[in-house]
Amino acid sequence: MTTTSTTTTTTAIAPADAAALRAEAQRVLDGNWREGVRRRDGVPFAYTCPSTPRYRHMWHWDSCFHAIARAGLDPVRARAELRTVLRTADPDGFLPHTVFWNHPVGWRRAPFYATRHVLGSTRTETIDPPLLAVAWERVAAVSATDDPGFATEALPLLARHLDWLEHHRDPDGDGLLTILLPDESGVDDSPKYDPVYGRYAHHRMGSFLLIENARRFGWDSRRVIASTDLHVEDVLVTVAYALSLHAMARMTGDEHYARRAARAEQALLDKCLDPGTGLFLDLAGRQEKAVRVSTWTALAPLALPGIPDDVKHRLVEEHVLHPRRYGAAVGIPSVAMEEPSFNPRFDRWRCWRGPSWVNTAWLLVPALRELGFVEAADAIVRGHVTAALRDGLREYYDPRDGAGMAARDFGWSALLVDMVRGDPGRA
Fold first, then answer.
1. CATH number of the domain that residue 21 is part of
2. Domain count of the chain?
3. Which distant-in-sequence residues (6+ apart) come within 8 Å of 372 by Cβ?
4. Residue 289: beta bridge partners?
5. What is the Cα 360 distance to its own chain's centre?
6. Are 291 and 281 spatial neighbours (Cβ–Cβ below 8 Å)?
7. How far is CA 54 from the centre of its chain?
8. Could you list the residue range(s) of the whole structural domain that residue 310 is in?
9. Residue limits of the Mannosylglycerate hydrolase MGH1-like glycoside hydrolase domain (predicted)?
10. Does some domain include residue 394?
11. H or E element at residue 404
12. Which of 9, 112, 232, 372 has a CA-to-CA distance to 38 between 20 and 30 Å?
């Protein structure tokens, strides 16, 4: 078995600042740690809630990010968190977006969670960007001495999870994964979904009706996809899927996973890459109509090893570094600054309409370094570190001045420690 590939370039941060950031990350992650036994069935759990009081539950990709951030701080809890995520899987490999454990959703919010029933459900029936295999490989790399069995214990269920995604979320077999709701991409209220979902978008009241429609189909995603145009072949979710397939190929030595990852990468190139802009665009509905809104997810294929360097260079030079697009003072904005929808202060359900998020930088900065844009990569990390040391680990930051916004003590912003350490754990 080979371990996850990493970069050895470390952003130049003053030792005192690096120590302060590490201490702050440890404080936030430990403060958000929750463990116990679910009352209704005795199932044990241990996870990091993103931020209290708003985010008390366990979210799939949040927990993956928390475990990666913890890998160099507390590998015991990193392993416990990933084992808890895996414990929520169905036998066929389905993994839920959100699990409620001992904190049921209140009656006011319950109708808007994508659960099987309006009340009484312990989880959602939706997916999240599938990063579990990436996180598992990353944590296994630091567990070889004290828990060597961790590296292989999950492989059968991780395989079933990836197979479930291929069967249920890629019905046309092209390698691109489909989401039913904007929430499944993790970037819920991104403006790229407005022209697709309209009044059913995440931040509009019609989102409840979209959930009810999926309930009527028993959350059978293939039937939902065949019946409506309110779904998206999503670039970010496909990137996460391909990264997990690459991780599985390394962990198992099985080239089957590498071939599946390559098929996803080729589909992104063939179907999503827009020759006019160089961006990777989501495809909406049964007609696979390109969604022409520039958001950071159109840059996400930078993280994939199978995307040609010339395609990546164009993304970086024409978009990431462009001062009117993503070349912001702090971080990488979630929407291109020249887009009419760019509004980093928007916050109805939560904001993917402009502010800079740490997980975005964590995914894309290693690619910048690999392509030779080291100074730009370091500047992005330093901007986030300066903002975090001033305003704390916040949910997101204003790309214009770095002001911390929304939830405080936000768990996945601890990924900054991983970035400063120079070991992003990216496949």
1. 1.50.10.10
2. 1
3. none
4. 284
5. 8
6. yes
7. 19
8. 15-420
9. 55-413
10. yes
11. strand 404-405
12. 112
Tell me if 8 is assigned to some domain. Answer: no
One DSSP character per residue, 90-143 reads: -TTS---SEE-TT-PPPTTTGGGS--SSSSS-SB-S------HHHHHHHHHHT-
Can you give the pLDDT of all 427 residues of the chain as single tens digits?
Answer: 333 333 334 566 899 999 999 999 999 999 999 999 999 899 999 999 999 888 999 999 999 999 999 999 999 999 999 999 999 999 999 999 999 998 877 767 777 789 998 888 899 999 999 999 999 999 999 999 999 999 999 999 999 999 999 999 999 999 999 999 999 999 999 999 999 999 988 887 778 899 999 999 999 999 999 999 999 999 999 999 999 999 999 999 999 999 999 999 999 999 999 999 999 999 999 999 999 999 999 999 999 999 999 999 999 999 999 999 999 999 999 999 999 999 998 776 568 999 999 999 999 999 999 999 999 999 999 999 999 999 999 999 999 999 999 999 999 999 999 999 754 433 3
**How far is the C-alpha of 133 from the C-alpha of 64, rounded, in Å?**
9
Tokens of 247: 């991780």
Helix %, strand %, coil % of the chain (to 5): 45, 10, 45
**How many contiguous H segments (helices) and E segments (strands) does the chain have?**
15, 10
User: Model's pTM, two decimal places?
Assistant: 0.95
Q: Is the CB of residue 131 less than 8 Å from the CB of residue 243?
A: yes
Q: Please check whether residue 268 is in contact with residue 331, taking contact to mean a CB–CB distance below 8 angstroms.
A: no
- Burial (CB < 10 A; 0-12, 13-18, 19+), residue 148, is exposed
Is residue 235 a part of any domain in this protein? yes
Give CA–CA dist 402/101, Å, rounded.
Answer: 34
Cα distance between residue 88 and residue 137, in whole Å? 19
Residue 51 lies in a domain: yes
Are 319 and 299 in contact by the 8 Å Cβ rule? The answer is yes
Structure tokens at 139: 């944590």
**C-alpha–C-alpha distance, residues 355 and 403, integer Å:** 10
> Would you mind telling me the total number of residues written for the chain in this entry?
427
Q: Are 347 and 359 in contact (CB under 8 A)?
A: no
CA distance 401 to 238: 32
Q: CB within 8 A of 398, min separation 6: which ones? A: 330, 344, 345, 355, 356, 405
Write out the two tokens for 58: 């366990």
Whole-angstrom Cα distance, residue 348 to residue 246?
36
